[in-house]
Amino acid sequence: MNIQVLESLPEVINKYKENLEADEITVFTSKLNAFGTDKDRTLGGPESTFTLTNKRIIVNNGKGTWDFDLMDDVIGIRKYDNGKKFIMRTVYYVVDFKEEVESGIPGAFMKGMHLYLDKKNIALFDELLQKLI
Q1: How far apart are CA 77 and CA 59, in angstroms?
Q2: How far apart are alpha carbons 39 and 46 in whole angstroms?
Q3: Contact (Cβ atoms closer than 8 angstroms) between residue 131 and residue 46
Q4: 104 vs 94: CA distance, rounded Å
Q5: Domain boundaries defined on the chain
Q6: N vs C: which end of the chain shows fewer Cβ within 10 Å?
Q7: Complete DSSP assignment for 63-101
Q8: What is the pLDDT along the chain (133 residues), one digit of tens a residue?
Q9: What Å distances lie between residue 4 and 11, 15, 70, CA to CA?
């Protein structure tokens, strides 16, 4: 994943008001339909938000925030699409971590995260991911 590309992208509004570092810019935001661990254990529902900056992934479920450094914590981001049509279709993004991290559920760890983006933002996020490859 070529995260240096994120430095060249235009800044978008930090609509979910995440706390950013002085040299950090927001490059993508989306509501989430849901998100969970790599084993699909739910961590948040439709009240959840996703923010991608030039340095971090920030996911917030309204009760807690998960924040991952792109250089230190993340191996990559990829799309999963089961290829089915209409209501049987499943699309989500897999964020793979370098090491297991606490999931926020007592005693549970995760090697990655599944992000179910709001459908209206899927094409836009796909376009951004193509730039990172």
Answers
A1: 14
A2: 19
A3: no
A4: 18
A5: 5-132
A6: C
A7: S-EEEEETTTTEEEEEEEE----GGG--EEEEEEEEEEE
A8: 788 899 899 999 999 999 999 999 999 999 999 999 999 899 999 999 999 999 999 999 999 999 999 999 999 999 999 888 877 778 999 999 999 998 888 888 999 999 999 989 999 999 999 988 7
A9: 14, 23, 10
Tokens (6 digits) for 44: 């948040």
Q: What count of residues does the chain have?
A: 133
Torsions phi, psi of 120, nearest 5?
-70, -15
Chain mean position to CA 111:
14
pTM attached to this predicted model = 0.92
Q: Tell me, which fold does domain 5-132 have in CATH?
A: PH-domain like (2.30.29)
How far, in Å, CA of 94 to CA of 77, rounded?
A: 6
